[in-house]
Amino acid sequence: MNLKPIAGIDVSKYFSEMVVISPANEILARLTIHHNNPADFERAIEILKKVEEDFAARPIIVMEATGHYHKILSRFFTCRGWDVSIINPYNLILSKMREKVKVKNDKNDALWIALTFRLTNSAIAQPSSETLDCLKNLCRQYYNLSDELTSYKYRLTSVVDQIMLNFKEVFPDICSKTSLAILENYPTPNDILSADSEKLISIIQQTSKKSYQWAKEKYDLLIAKAKEFKPFSISNLANVTMLKVYINMVLTLQQNIDKIFEAINQLVQQSSQTQPSISENINLLQSIPGIGFLTAATILAEIGDFEKFSKPNKLVAFFGIDPSVNQSGQFVSTSNKMSKRGSKILRRILFTIALANIRTKRDSKPCNPVLFEYYQKKCQQKPKKVAIFRCYEKAHMHYLCCYA
Description:
DNA binding; 7 strands; Transp_IS110-like_N; alpha/beta; Transpos_IS110; five-stranded mixed sheet; Transposase IS116/IS110/IS902 family protein; Transposase_20
């Protein structure tokens, strides 16, 4: 059991409560740290130094992972040379302690945090790399904006279906540059039919970067479809307005996603000088079939230091793809699902890797012959989604073998 003094900190948005306990679990000091008051931070350092002198042992600072709010305190204490450990807020012992106590406030929570660290004999967490933290933030924002983009694409499609349902017969990808340019300038069948033919052909040619003949053929087809659907078009003010709003949102999100991707690329390039292991690990991950630059960067950012996983099974659990356990007495369930305890982004990444490995190239050759053959065999016995899940498992085993 850890016999050093421990400073438990319950973090909130504007202030945090700190409680320092002795090796005998006696409360030595309490302090409210206001995040906009430098004097409170310095007072916390004074208290920690006094405890260090009294017990001839450097206190360990422990706090819960509380969104992004704990990062201010964690960074401050780490930069001042103190050991900081971030614990999981769903810790079982901490939850059980809180259930026994009828008083729920920040001061008591800070005490339970310190006692949880003591009772679980937790190890001191090493501060994560600032570069990897930055990479994780960028990658997560990339996927968040990608999800938003998908949502707005669906909304845009729903409006286009009402205004001109057969528009997709001309431009199957409604969110392509050519399609968006036409919808932005000529949102309704009436607008298309009354447009200057040469101007509309020019827009199609310039945005698609194809020949005049191809643009002319697309124009003729577009005119035919506009005439065909004109009697059924719901071209009211609401639909036209929302069409333009959704187009603007799609274009803005695409631009911002591109900016984030450029920042990820720039960060990895910069790290090759200061932390070459980051770019080396990304290159190693890209050697696995189905893993590209962004996927490799995301995996590395989410996992961080591979050395903290002493066994492959621990890495599997971090992914959240280990089987759950349902056992009581002599009963042992045989229909267990994935635990899904770890990073949902990592599970999402593994699923995309599995999809990439069962695809075929333009010449009809499989991207990954082994997994493709495995998928085809599973499809004969199981539904496609179940077969993809089996490939999902195979993909993660392939991944683990590279680092086991």
